[in-house]
Amino acid sequence: MCNDLEYYHDRLQNYGSLFLGKSTTVSMGDKASGPNHVLPTMRASRYTGGLSVLSFLKCLSWQRPTDASAREVARVTAEISRLEGMEGHARAADIRSKL
After folding, report:
1. Do the Cβ atoms of 49 and 81 come closer than 8 Å?
2. Which sign does the torsion angle of CA 6, 21, 37, 33 carry?
């Protein structure tokens, strides 16, 4: 309960679920309005929110670059890798930059 709901909405960054205003309650979130009552603990709200349907979806990523784009990305990858002291990564990228 607060006078300026937007103050908290605009400034808070790490929470599992935020209930703003007199028209909502945690029990609504737990049972009917959408957010789940399973919330992050042990400071996990820094990188995740509460349990949702997204928790049950598997996110896949894949790459299939063109030869031209792969050469450019390989060049940048090799440069970054060498700056980080990761010569094996740099050499793998060097090989792709010549394909």
Report:
1. no
2. negative
**DSSP structural state of residue 57:** P
How crowded is residue 21: how many other Cβ atoms within 10 Å of its Cβ? 10
d(CA 72, CA 93): 10
Q: What is the percent of the chain with per-residue pLDDT over 70, rounded to a whole number?
A: 95
Q: How far apart are CA 78 and CA 7, in angstroms?
A: 45
Token pair, residue 3, equals 């006078």
CA distance 16 to 38: 8
Indicate the pTM of the whole model.
0.49
Q: Where are the alpha helices (DSSP H) in the chain?
A: 5-11, 26-31, 67-83, 87-97
Contact status, residue 93 vs residue 83, Cβ threshold 8 Å = no
